[in-house]
């Protein structure tokens, strides 16, 4: 008897084929033979046993591959974790910014309060400008020492009080003789002529004696001393004192009949003095006196009247120099 055709299903798993007899399985399960007769129990059991053997196989899934479901699960889990981390970072940033802002605002309020308190406790500063004297702003001065000045002069008298000396000075002036009163300690002298040396003062004194005037010759040193002048004005006075000595040499030569005065040296020293700016009023007058005396001496041969004018300016310089002492 021919074997019936069987329809088989082949499953290929991991490169191995497995056949499954579909029709025969069905007939055996129903308990029928090909002729339609009921099969014997033994045959059914045998077929069933065979079927179990044919049906039994193992599903082998490669361990190296990951199903798409597992991949998606991993991806979703990773995405959720990243979102959670980003959310935590944003929360931390907001908290950090809030803390920094609060600290800055608090520090600002503290600084404003501190400035307000210290400003209210600070002493009041007087910013009032100093008063103006004689139309000019008062200058800040400090004490400086004036240089010493040596005087060799024809003396018209010596007095124990200044009032008597000033009266004698005025008497000489009324007679056409320039004169000043200068003090040294407790004595006041009347000076008639400023010379460059004691010997020349003695020689010039004889010319006064010839006119019937009782005179002497005297050497006197002004020690200078402290004065309240600015440094600039003190420098002008120092330069003027040196220029005064130069002018006494020329004035003495003219009085004794010599015209050999060093005009070039006088002109140079005069330019240096005039280039300096004197701010004190008395210092400015001293510069003017020296200037007028110098201009007369460099003008040429001088008459007795011009010589007297030179002496008047030189003696005026000495008198104002004495007044600068504090």
Automatic annotation (TrEMBL):
Transmembrane portions of the chain: 91-113
GO MF terms here are: peptidoglycan binding
Q: Which InterPro entries match?
A: SPOR-like_dom, SPOR-like_sf
Gene3D superfamilies xref list = Sporulation related repeat
Domain SPOR, by residue range, is 146-220
Q: Which residues form a coiled coil?
A: none
Name the UniProt key words of this record, in alphabetical order: Membrane, Transmembrane, Transmembrane helix
- Write the protein's name: SPOR domain-containing protein
The source organism is Peribacillus faecalis
């Amino acid at each position: 008897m021919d074997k019936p055709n069987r329809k088989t299903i082949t499953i290929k798993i991991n490169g191995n084929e497995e056949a499954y007899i579909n029709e025969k399985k069905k007939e055996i399960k129903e308990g029928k033979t090909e002729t339609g007769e009921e099969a014997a129990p033994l045959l059914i059991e045998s077929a069933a046993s065979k079927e179990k053997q044919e049906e039994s196989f193992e599903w082998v899934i490669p361990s190296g591959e990951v199903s798409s479901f597992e991949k998606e699960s991993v991806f979703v889990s990773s995405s959720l974790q990243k979102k959670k981390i980003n959310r935590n970072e944003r929360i931390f940033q907001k908290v950090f910014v809030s803390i920094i802002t609060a600290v800055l605002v608090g520090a600002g309020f503290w600084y404003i309060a501190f400035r307000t308190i210290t400003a209210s406790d600070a002493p009041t500063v007087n910013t009032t400008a100093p008063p103006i004297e004689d139309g000019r702003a008062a200058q800040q001065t400090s004490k400086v020492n004036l240089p010493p000045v040596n005087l060799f002069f024809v003396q018209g008298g010596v007095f124990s009080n200044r009032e008597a000396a000033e009266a004698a000075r005025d008497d000489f002036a009324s007679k056409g003789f320039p004169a000043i009163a200068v003090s040294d300690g407790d004595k006041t002298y009347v000076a008639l002529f400023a010379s460059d040396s004691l010997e020349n003062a003695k020689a010039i004194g004889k010319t006064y004696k010839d006119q019937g005037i009782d005179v002497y010759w005297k050497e006197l040193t002004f020690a200078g001393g402290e004065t309240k002048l600015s440094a600039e004005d003190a420098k002008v006075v120092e330069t003027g004192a040196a220029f005064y000595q130069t002018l006494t040499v020329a004035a003495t030569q003219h009085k004794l009949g010599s015209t050999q005065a060093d005009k070039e040296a006088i002109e140079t020293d005069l330019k240096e003095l005039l280039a300096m700016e004197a701010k004190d009023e008395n210092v400015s007058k001293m510069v003017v006196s020296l200037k007028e005396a110098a201009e007369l001496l460099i003008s040429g041969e001088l008459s007795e009247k011009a010589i007297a004018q030179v002496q008047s300016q030189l003696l005026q310089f000495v008198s104002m120099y004495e007044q600068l002492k504090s």
